[in-house]
Design brief:
Strand content of chain B: 25-35%
Strand order of the largest sheet of chain A: 6-7-8-3-9-10
Distance between the termini of chain B: 33 Å
Strand order of the largest sheet of chain B: 6-7-8-3-9-10
Oligomer: heterodimer
Shape of chain B: elongated
Mean pLDDT of chain A: 91
CATH class of the largest domain in chain B: Alpha Beta
Radius of gyration of chain A: 18 Å
Structural class of chain A: alpha/beta
Low-confidence stretches of chain A: none
Number of strands of chain B: 14
Helix content of chain B: 25-40%
Number of strands of chain A: 10
Largest sheet of chain A: 6 strands, mixed
Structural class of chain B: alpha/beta
Low-confidence stretches of chain B: none
CATH topology of chain A: Rossmann fold
Order of helices and strands of chain A: EEEHEEHEHHHEHEHEEHH
CATH class of chain A: Alpha Beta
Largest sheet of chain B: 6 strands, mixed
Number of domains of chain A: 1
CATH architecture of chain A: 3-Layer(aba) Sandwich
Strand content of chain A: 25-35%
Radius of gyration of chain B: 23 Å
Distance between the termini of chain A: 37 Å
Order of helices and strands of chain B: EEEHEEHEHHHEHEEEHEHEEHEH
Mean pLDDT of chain B: 94
Shape of chain A: globular
Chain lengths: ~250, ~300
């Protein structure tokens, strides 16, 4: 169970004399839902870009899905899933066309694509919508589809960057149930959010302040550690100490 | 007559009905919140009330002026902070402020007392280009610009979206201060937990208003018994609880799941029914705005 899927040690990123990410170290285990929180400007996006192979660290080391952050950025990109803030599929393509497009980008061949896409559609109960234009789907379905497509190449870990911003409370919960389900089946989830109730759904939560990871533990233990009732309070206590803005 | 009066406003874009016969009124000096997700029609409503868009049908008055007939008068009486940062990134902080002051024929000095609590925090950076400011500082500048002509009514479209919990709370403190100065404020947000900072709120979804009341009144309208339940495996708990007797609804709610009970629900029976689940806890809990929103959406 305790396979390590993401491991970073003393990871730093400097832009000129500004240290955006300051020697962060942590491990993420297989099947975990890992919440990655921080105030605006704390360095979350920079850290996440390094983990996704989009930016090389200035110093430190780490690996994601078995590939080295320093040297194997391209391999990392192929072996992770990524869903950006909200919805990023093509509205003018059908459900099936979107699946084919992303499967192709992730390097699946024709028969793999056929098999994976069919299976995903069945699991989502979506087979009848195969030829529907994505733009005409309700928001909740679009979101489920986005997530499914981010996992079409069966990545070990999926990065979700504020996946539920501006989404209604019912759709937001349906989305989290899908995350639970994926985690149960062994997919590792790395997620950022501004909704503090969603922090409670995570196996463990890390909170970044001024480029450093200031706290990392299960929600229950974080609340004990800071003697508070909610993750919202834990976040406030830590973020209030922040020196820098966005 | 209220500061804002909205009568059966409707607006569609092609086939999409963005606003569907919406009516409400906002008292003078009130801090009124429009709470709802994307697609609720919040931005459309702001654009109609600030005379940037004409409705398909219905009418509205802002500060005593009709949005159709007196649109020019309205524009100098209201301040509007759109959801997207819309100041000039190539102008400095001070130049942006001067620009908006000039547009309305006032000076920064005229309004300094009003904007000072907000503007003072960015004044040390007054020569910096607006495009180079942090998110929180941009927002303070935008709010200063929206206030420069001393508007009677302030419109703020999702000022806290994508902003961290601490900055969000600071913004609400600023709004409370402006309310104290007698300004009527209409503000929208997708965050249900911000509802308690408003005098009254309208819960909106898909172009309609589901309910209008004080935050306390909305919560009081939740007429079912609500429980918080938890167990070691929360996901398994959710599935089991949904099929248990007397359960109307069960959904994740932070560290616990919320369970909406029907009349025949019985705690002891429920625990017995779920017997084999490890670490089961059940406790009566008070509903929140979000519980009510979910209930109204499902109706």
């Amino acid at each position: 169970m305790n396979d390590i899927v993401i491991s970073v040690r003393e990871l730093s990123k400097r832009f000129g004399n500004f240290t955006a990410v300051d020697r962060i170290s942590f491990d993420v285990y297989r099947g975990e839902i890992f919440g990655f929180l921080g105030a605006n400007g704390a360095g979350k996006t920079t850290a996440m870009r390094m983990l996704c192979g989009l930016s090389y660290p200035t110093s430190g080391k780490g690996s994601v899905a078995g590939y080295d952050i320093m040297h194997e950025g391209e391999q990392i990109k192929r072996h992770i899933g990524y869903m950006s803030q909200r919805f990023s599929l093509y509205n003018d393509l059908t459900v099936w066309e979107n699946m084919r497009l992303f499967a192709g980008i992730y390097g699946l061949n024709k028969s793999q694509t056929e098999q994976q896409a069919t299976e995903l559609l069945e699991r989502l109960n979506f087979s009848s919508e195969r030829n529907t234009l994505v733009g005409s789907l309700p928001l909740g379905w679009k979101q489920k589809l986005s997530f499914a497509i981010a996992t079409i190449h069966r990545p070990e870990v999926v990065f979700l960057d504020e996946p539920t911003g501006g989404v209604d409370p019912i759709t937001r919960r349906q989305f989290w149930e899908m995350i639970y389900e994926a985690a149960e089946s062994g997919t590792t989830i790395f997620v950022t959010t501004h909704y503090m109730d969603e922090a409670e759904y995570c196996t463990r939560v890390s909170i970044m302040v001024d480029g450093k990871v200031q706290a990392l533990d299960t929600p229950t233990r974080l609340k004990q550690q800071f003697a508070t009732e909610s993750m919202d309070e834990v976040f406030r206590i830590l973020a209030r100490g922040a020196q820098r803005g966005e | 007559m209220g500061a804002i009066e909205v009568h059966n406003l409707s607006k569609s874009y092609g086939k999409v009905q963005a606003l569907d016969s919406v009516s409400f009124s906002v008292e003078r000096g009130e801090l009124f919140g429009l709470i709802g997700p994307d697609g609720a029609g919040k931005t459309t409503l702001f654009r109609l009330l600030t005379t940037l868009l004409n409705p398909d049908s219905g009418s509205a008055e802002v500060d005593g002026c009709d949005t159709a007939k007196d649109y020019l008068a309205i524009r100098s009486r209201v301040g509007y902070m759109p959801g997207r940062f819309s100041l000039y990134p190539d102008l400095s902080v001070e130049e942006n402020l001067q620009f908006f002051a000039a547009l309305f024929g006032v000076t920064i000095e005229d309004s300094y007392d009003l904007i000072a609590p907000i503007y003072k925090q960015i004044e040390p950076f007054r020569t910096r280009r607006a495009g180079k400011l942090s998110g929180g500082m941009k927002q303070k500048l935008a709010l200063s610009c929206a206030l420069i002509h001393r508007p009677n009514v302030l419109f703020l479209d999702e000022p806290t979206t994508g902003v961290d919990a601490v900055s969000r709370s600071e913004l609400w403190d600023m709004l409370s201060e402006l309310k104290e100065r007698g300004i009527t404020i209409l503000v929208s947000t997708p965050y249900m937990d911000e509802a308690s900072r408003c005098d009254r709120i309208a819960l909106c979804n898909e172009g309609r208003i589901l309910k209008i009341d004080t935050p306390e009144g909305i919560v009081r309208g939740f007429d079912k018994q609500l429980y918080g339940i938890s167990a070691k495996n929360m996901f398994a708990l959710l599935e089991k609880a949904r099929t248990a007797d007397g359960v109307e609804d069960c959904y994740p709610f932070g560290e616990k799941h919320h369970l909406v009970a029907r009349e025949e629900f019985d705690e002891a029976k429920f625990v017995a029914q779920l017997g084999d689940i490890e670490g089961l806890q059940i406790i009566r809990t008070a509903p929140t705005i979000e519980d009510m929103f979910i209930k109204l959406m499902k109706r």
